Amino acid sequence: MAILTESGENPEIIEYLKNPLTIEELQDIIAKLKIKPEDLVRKKEPLFVENYKGKSFTDKQWIKILSENPVLIERPILIKGNKAVIGREEVKIRELL
């Protein structure tokens, strides 16, 4: 948030843990991130470890899993126009801005 504020950005915050994303919204975000749906999964999350680790799913199945279990989605995700990044690395955030 500090990087965004410093750059003059006024981000809209979407609390997808409270209001889960639709399949269409997830597909749009994944396309903007230019990643596979599985790359959006938090692999250390207990829910993943207990239920999904070591199993194979199609992209469509991962999107459904993520829409039903938003706690599995990496965060924060920053979106600007048609581009997006997972905001864990400062360099990626700055590249997006």
Automatic annotation (TrEMBL):
It holds the Pfam family ArsC. Gene3D superfamilies: Glutaredoxin. Transmembrane segments: none annotated. InterPro entries: Arsenate_reductase-like, Thioredoxin-like_sf. Belongs to the ArsC family. This is Arsenate reductase. It comes from Sporocytophaga myxococcoides.
